[in-house]
Amino acid sequence: MSSPNDPSGSPKRTQKIRTMVADDYERISGADDPFVILNLSRDASLDEVRSRYERYEKFYRAENFQRFADMDLTRKALDIRRAIGRAMVSIQSSADAEPEEAPSAPKKEKPVLPQVDDDCAALGDIYFRDGLTYLKLRDLNSAEECLKRATNYDPSRGIILAYLGYTQFKLRNNDPGVVDESRQQLERAASMEPDNAEVFVLMARFGINVADKHFATHALDNVERIRPKHPKLRKLKKRLDKVG
């Protein structure tokens, strides 16, 4: 299964890809069995499951479908990718549950962060990446839906919360309640990940957009502290200079 974004693709190959996506989408839409979703027999080994998942995951990345300029095809690819991610997590969880093992030592986390098991974290990351893809496609509604699901699966990652807050602000910036909630989400995200420059970049954008110079300045100071050569720092400072 090669990438659908192969520049040498002919019309015949393009149609073959569309047919493949349609067939896979039909299969995953009517299936609850993770082995059916991955198109494997139930006696497949874990190595076979992982190999099939990696092939599908690589093939169904959204960037592979951007050249088609077909939003419906891209959505189906993302739906398939999420489905195979859930299937992989389900099979892996079942395999891990079979042997009786002593519980592993809990990971050290900041007191403010909730504990998240590996399965939920994996699903949260899938939805987060899909949310970022929708943001690149300027589909804010789909991005919001993915980011909400990402935070539901993994509420421990400040960067996901930051993107959710900023996306909701972009969608409904004429609603004072939403603007206030977005500000709180960004501040919460910064407290969760105080050394993540990308969180503060989103905070700076928010501050500039609402003309809160103090908020934006504080955010940019932190970007400079964490990553002095951040590629967006200079541009954001220029935008901030124009805020009255």
UniProtKB/TrEMBL annotation:
<dbReference type="InterPro" id="IPR019734">
    <property type="entry name" value="TPR_rpt"/>
</dbReference>
<dbReference type="InterPro" id="IPR011990">
    <property type="entry name" value="TPR-like_helical_dom_sf"/>
</dbReference>
<protein>
    <recommendedName>
        <fullName>Tetratricopeptide repeat protein</fullName>
    </recommendedName>
</protein>
<keyword id="KW-0802">TPR repeat</keyword>
<feature type="repeat" description="TPR">
    <location>
        <begin position="124"/>
        <end position="157"/>
    </location>
</feature>
<feature type="region of interest" description="Disordered">
    <location>
        <begin position="91"/>
        <end position="112"/>
    </location>
</feature>
